[in-house]
Amino acid sequence: MYLYLASDIKLQGLQAGQSTLVCLFYGQTFGQSTAKAFCSPPPFTSIHKMDSQRELTEELRLYQSTLLQDGLKELLEEKKFIDCSLKAGDRSLPCHRLILSACSPYFREYFLSEQNEEKKKEVVLDNVDPNILDMIVKYLYSASIDLNDSNVQDIFALASRFQIPSVFTVCVSYLQKRLAVGNCLAILRLGVLLDCPRLAFSARDFVSDHFVQICKEDEFLQLAPHELISVISPDSLNVEKEELVFEAVMKWVRKDKENRVKNLGEVFDCIRFRLMPEKYFKEHVEKDDIIKSNSDLQKKVKIIKDAFAGKLPDSSKNKDKSNKGEVNGDVGDEDLLPGYLNDLPRHGMFVKDLILLVNDTAAVAYDPLENECYLAALAEQIPRNHSSIVTKQNQVYVVGGLYVEEENKDQPFQSYFFQLDSIAGEWVALPPLPSARCLFGLGESDNKIYVIAGKDLRTEESLDSVLCYDPVAIKWGEIKKLPIKVYGHATISNNGLIYCLGGKTDDKKCTNRVFVYNPKKGDWRDLAPMKVARSMFGTAIHKGKIFIAGGVTEEGLTESVEAFDLTTNKWEVLPEFPQERSSISLVTLSGSLYAIGGFAMIQLESKEFAPSEVTDIWNILCHLTKPRLSVITGSLITGRWF
């Protein structure tokens, strides 16, 4: 099962059958183990004594380790009790046999061998960088080493060669933390080359989790056949559709067609064709020119076509079960049929649409159908009043927000930019906006992020400038300006186009103008204006129409609702929302349209009305007129808006 955002997001996380109910009020996860909390605990005094003894033991161990480390470092620096040296190139590094033997099985065996004494005094090491060796030796005496992206691979390789597990482990931990889309394949190769399962598995898991992005990298096209097979084989591959795996493989083949066609049969077996729609298989797999020209692949295509028709081949292990249609259904039957008939869904195919709600505390995914919440990520570094968006590639971004850096006298206002790593459940900092702004619109097209107009936080000037973030170049640029200066407007993206609606202009008056931007043409053009000029309202694409609800007009808060038909370029008035409200979030999810939260005038205990934040969720049905509310749980309220 997957997690989603408050505007069509898919976040990876929970597999089917592994749902976890998260209590947002207490920060605890409740499950079967909850009952253990009610068992009688050990007496407090016993626990206290155990903790004290444990702390004392740890303190003594740490003190002794520090004392020993400092002493060894001092002996090396003063060259006391030196009884050997390591010679690499033109450098000779003084050492102690005891230290080398204690830290390395390689040197222990060397010094315990029957070598003559002279050879033990000076150990000549061929093909070794003396600077790298010096760093490793100093680490053995000081437990300190300066790892960076430039030297870690050389240090790792040398530590592996001379069997120094402490340095080896430090390098593995460093590389695991540095795993990224651009380097994970290289780290995977390194882990395999140096026979380090821990690093290789970590890198392969990272590749599986981020396969959609990694298969677009140039390095993916450089994989050897056996490396490609190891990447696309796992059940844990995070893809929603098997078609993506097939397309990535064929792109890899065409990169070096002459040499790779001969390996395609083996790679072909790792693609789970029965997970594809039969129509896609006929139009893209059967008709592929490379597959059509390969007789062995044609035989497999015939078998797959028969499988789509319900006819499976006889198993060499169990012919009696050959026609029952069970593929990989039981653990014992996994090898009965060839890999290309495997119909076991990948990890990424357990998908569920959820609404992601983000504030400055946490990102919570809400399932309105099951009325369940899931903690997607903590969000303590996310500022208040930010804007969020999800791209067609299912990447979640948070931009801007109210943040004042009081220590920075020159530029106290900051507009940060974060991306959600849905696998790790963490927010990754990206280059901030070049200029701090608020009340802007946020759109996307072709995986690029657009920040449209708004207000300058420092000068409070209305803006017409449009910023564009390129995730490949990892930098912001500026494109053609919006025709007017505006803030508090709504922005929505659809089919590669970006729509900008309403807002307030330089004269602080609401506008009803609507613009559309075509990134391919690089121009803005006018569309039919809204019926009601407004700002701070909700918007979403639903069933081929742009819906807008609530907001602020010249008279104040409004409950009016409109819809714009994208095909006819016309607006229509819809039944009013049950309450005058601004800053509503509209979300389309599984064919339904939801209105979430916002601000409304609420009567206080003093009988006075004041603007207050509301946290209810409405399911919008526009063809009826009678509203109804029903409490779901805690502060979440859903209603049907007829």
UniProtKB/TrEMBL annotation:
InterPro entries: BACK (IPR011705), BTB-kelch_protein (IPR017096), BTB/POZ_dom (IPR000210), Kelch-typ_b-propeller (IPR015915), Kelch_1 (IPR006652), KLHL41_KL41B_BTB_POZ_dom (IPR030571), SKP1/BTB/POZ_sf (IPR011333)
Cellular component terms (Gene Ontology): cytoplasm
Keyword presence, Repeat: yes
Alphabetical UniProt keywords: Cytoplasm, Kelch repeat, Repeat
Residues in BTB domain copies: 82-149
Top-rank lineage group of the source organism: Eukaryota
Coiled-coil zones: none
Chief localization: cytoplasm
Cellular localization per UniProt: Cytoplasm
PANTHER family reported for this sequence: KELCH-LIKE PROTEIN 32, LD33804P
Protein name (database record): Kelch like family member 41
Natural source organism: Anas zonorhyncha
